[in-house]
Amino acid sequence: DNSAEADLWLLNSCTVKNPAEDHFRNSIKKAQEGKKKVVLAGCVPQAQPRQEYLKGLSIIGVQQIDRVVEVVEETIKGHSVRLLGQKKDNGKRLGGARLDLPKIRKNPLIEIISINTGCLNACTYCKTKHARGDLASYPIEELVDRAKQSFQEGVCEIWLTSEDTGAYGRDIGTDLPTLLWKLVEVIPEGAMLRLGMTNPPYILEHLEEMAKILNHPRVYAFLHIPVQSASDSVLMDMKREYCVADFKQVVDFLKEKVPGITIATDIICGFPGETDEDFQETMKLVELYRFPSLFINQFYPRPGTPAAKMPQVPAAVKKQRTKDLSQLFHSYNPYDHKVGERQRVLVTEESFDSNYYVAHNPFYEQVLVPKDPLLMGKMVEVNIYEAGKHFMKGQPVSDARVHTASISRPLAKGEVSGLTEEFRRSAQNGTNWKAQPSAEIPVKTRLSSWMALQLPWQQEGGGLKILSVSLALLAVLVMFYYRGMKTEL
Questions:
Q1: Burial status of residue 143 (CB atoms within 10 A of its CB: 0-12, 13-18, 19 or more)
Q2: Residue 126: closest CA among 269, 303, 331
Q3: What are the residues whose beta carbons fall under 8 Å from the beta carbon of 168, sequence distance 6 or more?
Q4: What pLDDT, on a 0 to 100 scale, did the predictor assign at position 335?
Q5: Which CATH class is domain 338-404?
Q6: Distance CA 385, CA 264 (A)
Q7: What would be the CATH architecture of the domain defined by 92-332?
Q8: Do 348 and 156 touch, CB atoms closer than 8 A?
Q9: Can you say how many angstroms the Cα of residue 423 is from the centroid of all Cα atoms in its chain?
Q10: From edge to edge, which strands make up the β-sheet containing 192-194?
């Protein structure tokens, strides 16, 4: 809870924007000034491991998070460790870390499942592709098993996430609707599933099936579809692989087939070559659809991307366009017409100001409800009595049935997910203390930590280690055999 008391800082990173990388660099500097051991993770060191400010520091790659215990322990000993390789199986690139690894959920009621890593696009502004690489999807059975386990641990809401959920399965001979129908089968009554971001090209061919899934009572009628610009020429320079008409086709179809659906989108202001006319097309698109959720990003040229080498829009122009679009977005209130409605909501979080609990209705719109502990993790009916720009406020209906979504007691905050009952009982009995000879202080390692350590044959290159040991044993046996033969002679 207090970074100043920690022996080591594990710093994760995002490479999407310059400010995010600047924050990462500043955190490293702060850790070094505080004489802290440092392990770096995420997309920044994966994409640019030779950066000057990363020299001499331990790095764990985006595909090696299952080996974080090893890296942390070696770093505390004073060693520098770098694991950045790509995991493969018979020459095929695998996704990220295994889905069944022990984890601690930030919110015991919400499970976040990555369904694939990487993507199929080659957007000219994107740095993430450098770190995440091409598409690699997890098998359907593994994803369904993880969902089942989550519900058995008291989760009542699952978020599916990836760089592009719509592209799921194209590398393993399946698709997103097939996965979603399998997941819907295991969602208990009162629990909900939320889909993540999908780019327009990969959702176009599945529109009919996606509409059916988004109408399912246990799936939020919500989809995040980034448009980035309403100018075809800008989209072409971005290499987005769709035109504005494609985006409109997706949105119009879903709005017709899934009444009330929430469509969230992203827009980049000031992409290289964007003219005033291009930007006005984007303003018209926002005015047309009045997106209730809009992520506005000022363009930042990321080193090593094609867009960084293109003629740049002046900084003042980018800033003004970002301001103009923000003013347009804040000029309308998307929820005013919902005051007076009776809605079914699932309560899962506490508000930032700690004054309310946060719930979501079937369209994943935010509804603030009274801070009553009996409501947390429950699906209830409320009357909407107030609306703001980003939320509504609801009062629970007195005669309504309160439904407990979880099929079992949620894990306590900080409790480790994915452990067997045997290990869970062992962990409750105490803590192992393990002194590191070359470390300045002893390191306290819980069972949940050493469980994540891999045996030699589980690690990368493990097969080679087994072969080496086997050959050594064979050599010893042969030596004894021939020595026995000489004695007999």
A1: buried
A2: 303
A3: 115, 116, 137, 162, 174, 175, 176, 179
A4: 97
A5: mainly beta
A6: 24
A7: Alpha-Beta Horseshoe (3.80)
A8: yes
A9: 27
A10: 110-114, 157-161, 192-194
Which residue is associated with the tokens 């790659």? Answer: 61
What was the pLDDT predicted at 269? Answer: 98
CA angle centred on 291, ends 289 and 297, rounded to 5°: 120
Pinpoint the residues of the chain covered by CATH 2.40.50.140: 338-404
The answer to pTM > 0.70 is yes
Bin 154: left if φ > 0, else alpha if -120 < ψ < 50, else beta.
left
Buried b (16+ CB within 10 A) or exposed e, 285-295: bbeebebbbbe
3-state secondary structure (DSSP) of residue 399 = coil
Strands (E), 318-451: 342-350, 357-360, 366-369, 378-387, 392-396, 403-404, 432-434, 443-445
Distance CA 322, CA 136 (A): 34
User: Which DSSP string do the residues of 367-386 spell out, in sequence order?
Assistant: EEE---GGGTTEEEEEEEEE
Amino acid identity, position 96: G
Give me the pLDDT at residue 93, please: 58
Identify the residue whose tokens are 């894990």: 411
What residues does CATH 3.80.30.20 cover in the chain? 92-332
Amino acid in the structure at residue 156: C
List per-block mean pLDDT (blocks of 10 residues) for the chain, which spans 489 residues. Answer: 89 81 89 91 82 87 83 90 73 68 91 90 83 85 95 95 92 96 95 95 93 97 97 97 96 97 98 98 98 95 91 97 98 97 96 96 98 94 97 92 79 82 56 33 33 38 45 46 39
Is residue 39 within 8 A of residue 31, CB to CB? The reply is no
Closest to 365 measured CA to CA, from 476, 221, 179: 221
Count of Cβ atoms closer than 10 Å to residue 168 Cβ: 27
- CA angle (325 as vertex; 43, 275 as ends), nearest 5: 85
Q: Please state, in angstroms and rounded to a whole number, the distance separating the CA atoms of residues 115 and 194.
A: 13
